[in-house]
Design goal:
Chain lengths: 499, 334
């Protein structure tokens, strides 16, 4: 058995959160002295696997062996003792403590990390600063230094480069190579395929919670990785859509009135001047790699956060929202990606669908007269399965997602802001949601759709904007929005797509 | 965490055993359990003291349950939002104290003055919790201390004078209609109960209470402005506290600053017994009514057994702890 020599061998690892399967059955083998990439689209299960390997969450099934021996990893300390060090996707530092206090919690001294910080050109950093006051990029590097100080056999880096500048990322690659030369191993997770091909020896690709490929990366093309990550199952639908384009001609669309206009919206250092126009009846796609400011942009649009600067105009009039209520009352309806942000888990489907009706005090004295009809219409239009409807938390993920959209059908809106509405739901429901979005646009409403499902953009959008580092870096008509074109632009590389 | 597609079945397919079916029925219909407990307690109390199983015996339990039930109405609507009112007993006492003091000026002025105490203190709680984001426990605990201090000092100054409730309030709190049969206090409680049950089941305001307690983030993204809901609901809870105080003061007759002291824990206990979650989003006032009645019967039983206030308070405390644990377990098992 080759597993005997492997540094790490995970077999048939599975994890579900309630009805939602995060990992179906994943295998991962990391040999000593290699840099191994763990690849997959958003939601493929990469971070879940990393959290299981570092014992932050327990697996439902599967075995983990370290150096050929089955490891009993139940709590984070066990993972560390087994030689696994992790830098998680989100900084694992307590914002109200100083950097040094944070180190001490991990039982480390400043002397332990200083040599590593030095290697990342961070020797000048003041460790008495509160972690909450330090930029994200520095926190990521400090997380890395902390992991390295424990001298792990296997270093797992979950999306560490997403928040880093190019020169900072180069320090990380240098350290990864050095780690490899010492005979240690690195598990590297990144959406930036270019840097993956450059830095990594082998790759394991996850799709929908299953490993679909183990590859040797020597001589592999980026496009082959993309195909492996995204799968083939929707190719037929894409081809069908290309034959019968649902999109309007560009000229026809720009002649329509602008319902939503953003003028140089900025938010801290996350959104760096976004301007765009959304026309009546248009579905405007937006796509980006993770962490390019799209979350913050939608927070601003939904009225959840105020922009640092810039203007938002709805139907030609300025909107300066202090809370989501202000945006909603001007017709902007927001569907968040995370259903936990949208649902009332212990309440019924009916209450979940009707809740926006009661955000005005003048409707507090009784129930809205036609509440039942509104709810029934939304349930029918979205074919929500209400058999378990007494508590929304008992519904399947797809049905829950329908409830988050159906809420606005029941209470009314002009413009729908959808943030990755099809993340983590089955293909049939996905198709249903896209049909609904087209239908909504057909009735004259507008839709701004952020999606991480690149190959579905031509199916549903009229045009697509690409966001990178808090800016719009490209615009494509839907017909030209091939995955390759979108991916290159989304990596901030393509000059041709930029406007 | 993003999540991949799932085709997980909606409903478990395993055939449940008869016992599991019964258990599931009872978990889904907690009121059946509560009514059963109430009947058993009444019969046990009757076995201890046979005179109890008479109209006047049950009437005494109901009378004791009234102030608990009304105070617990306030706790229930606050707990639905994830809040609580630790100043409820002090608000009740203050309202009764002011009403007694104003009683020489007539029943109307006395009642309005008493209810104003509840509205003002409740609104202050609501502004603290809703606008300034002070934690409900801290806000209402501090409010309780402030009210005690204020009324203690005012007792010697602006509220020196009458400590006796006027006749009208005494009739409301302790008198009966149709001879000695139906207490006015029970009628008042029944009327309030209908209003609150309507509010929670059939009004938009009720919907916002459940929504806010179940998921504040989702409520905000749906356009609810939580501070408005919270100011309204804490004010309403203050008003209910004041009504409870007037009824209790009317029954006792003479009001002092310890009047409602022993009713804070039972008011929370009644809501918890009735199945209202202290974490918000789940609960009914019907359950709370049954909880208050159970505590009323329990008080009669303990009195017959010769157990004093000390033992009663220990029992209420144990009930709150035990049931909170049990309901959390049931919720986790589901």
């Amino acid at each position: 058995m080759t597993g005997n020599q492997s540094l790490l061998a995970a077999r048939d690892v599975a994890k579900r959160y309630g009805p939602v399967v995060a990992l179906r059955s994943a295998d991962l083998t990391v040999e000593p002295g290699e840099i191994h990439a763990l690849l997959g689209a958003n939601g493929a299960g990469k971070s879940t696997l990393v959290k299981i390997l570092s014992a932050v969450i327990p697996a439902d099934a599967g075995t983990i062996s370290v150096h050929g021996r089955q490891a009993d990893i139940r709590k984070p300390g066990d993972a560390m003792a087994a030689g696994i060090g992790t830098v998680f996707q989100d900084p694992a530092l307590i914002p109200d403590l100083s950097l040094e206090q944070n180190l001490r919690i991990s039982e480390l001294d400043r002397d332990d990390v200083l040599p590593w910080l030095d290697r990342m050109n961070l020797s000048h950093i003041d460790l008495d600063l509160l972690a909450g006051d330090v930029p994200l990029a520095v926190l990521r590097l400090l997380d890395l230094a902390r992991a390295l100080a424990r001298d792990p056999q296997l270093l797992m880096l979950d999306e560490i480069t997403a928040a880093l500048t190019t020169d900072q990322a180069d320090y990380v690659f240098e350290l990864m190579r050095e780690w490899k030369e010492r005979g240690r191993s690195v598990l590297f997770i990144s959406h930036r395929l270019g840097e993956v091909l450059e830095a990594c020896d082998r790759a394991t690709i996850l799709r929908n919670g299953i490993h679909v490929a183990h590859l040797d990366l020597a001589g592999v093309e980026e496009s082959a990785l993309v195909t492996a990550m995204l799968g083939e199952e929707l190719v037929e639908k894409v081809e069908a859509a290309e034959e019968e384009p649902a999109v309007l001609l560009d000229k026809e669309m720009t002649a329509r009135p602008v319902v939503l206009e953003l003028k140089d919206i900025r938010l801290r250092d996350r959104v760096n001047g976004v301007s765009l126009q959304l026309h009546q009846g248009e579905i405007l796609g937006l796509t980006a790699l993770e962490g390019q400011g799209q979350n913050e942009l939608f927070q601003v649009l939904s009225g959840d956060r105020r922009p640092s600067s810039g203007e938002l105009h709805v139907d030609g009039e300025r909107l300066s929202a202090r809370s989501p209520y202000d945006a909603i009352s001007r017709g902007l309806a927001f569907v968040p990606a995370d259903r936990h942000q949208a649902l009332l888990p212990q309440r019924s489907v009916r209450e979940n669908l009707a809740i926006p009706l009661y955000n005005r005090a003048r409707r507090w004295l009784s129930l809205v007269g036609d509440e039942e009809e509104r709810v029934e219409q939304a349930v029918e239009r979205l074919t929500i399965d209400v058999r378990a409807g007494r508590q929304v938390q008992r519904l399947s993920g797809g049905n829950q997602q329908k409830v988050t959209i159906g809420r606005w059908l029941a209470s009314g809106f002009d413009t729908l802001l959808c943030f990755d509405p099809t993340r983590g739901i089955d293909i049939q429901t996905k198709a249903q949601i896209y049909d609904l979005l087209r239908e909504i646009a057909g009735t004259g409403s507008a839709v701004l759709l952020y999606t991480s499902e690149l190959r579905e953009i031509p199916l549903v959008c009229d045009r697509v904007l690409i966001m990178y580092a808090g800016r719009i870096v490209g615009e494509l008509p839907a017909a030209a929005a091939t995955e390759e074109a979108l991916l290159t632009a989304a990596h901030g590389l393509n000059e041709e797509a930029a406007i | 965490m993003s999540t991949p597609p799932t085709t997980a079945p909606l409903v478990e397919s395993e055939e449940p055993t008869q016992l599991q079916k019964v258990a599931r029925y009872l978990i889904n219909h907690p009121h059946v359990v509560l009514i059963g407990v109430l009947i058993v307690l009444i019969l046990v109390t009757g076995a201890i003291e046979s005179n109890y199983l008479s109209f006047s015996g049950l009437r005494n339990s109901a009378l004791f349950a009234v102030p608990i039930g009304v105070l617990a109405a306030g706790q229930t609507i606050l707990m639905l939002t994830g809040g609580i009112d630790l100043s409820a007993a002090m608000i009740a006492t203050g309202a009764a104290y002011v009403a007694a003091n104003q009683s020489p000026k007539g029943a109307a002025i006395a009642i309005v003055a008493g209810l104003l105490v509840g509205i003002i203190a409740g609104a202050a709680n609501g502004i603290g919790v809703g606008v300034f984001r002070v934690h409900p426990i801290i806000m209402t605990l501090a409010m309780s201390g402030i009210l005690l201090g204020l009324f203690t000092s005012w007792a010697q100054t602006i509220f020196s004078g009458s400590t006796r409730m006027g006749d009208f309030i005494r009739t409301l709190g302790g008198g009966s209609i149709f001879g000695r049969t139906l207490p006015w206090a029970v009628i008042v409680w029944a009327f309030l109960s209908l209003l609150i049950i309507y509010m929670l089941r059939r009004s938009g305001f009720g919907r916002t209470l459940y929504a806010l307690g179940d998921n504040p983030v989702a409520s905000r993204l749906s356009g609810l402005r939580s501070w408005r809901v919270l100011v309204a609901v804490y004010t309403l809870a203050g008003l209910l506290g004041a009504i409870a105080g007037l009824l209790l003061g009317g029954r006792v007759g003479a009001v002092d600053l310890q009047l409602a002291n022993n009713f804070l824990l039972p008011s929370v206990a009644a809501a918890v017994i009735g199945g209202t979650s202290i974490f918000g989003g789940v609960g009914t006032y019907t359950g709370t009514i049954l909880g208050a009645l159970i505590l009323g019967v329990l008080q009669s039983m303990l009195t017959f057994l010769g157990a004093g206030q000390a033992i009663q308070q220990m029992l209420y405390g144990s009930i709150v702890i035990g049931l909170s644990w049990l309901y959390t377990r049931i919720a986790a098992a589901q």
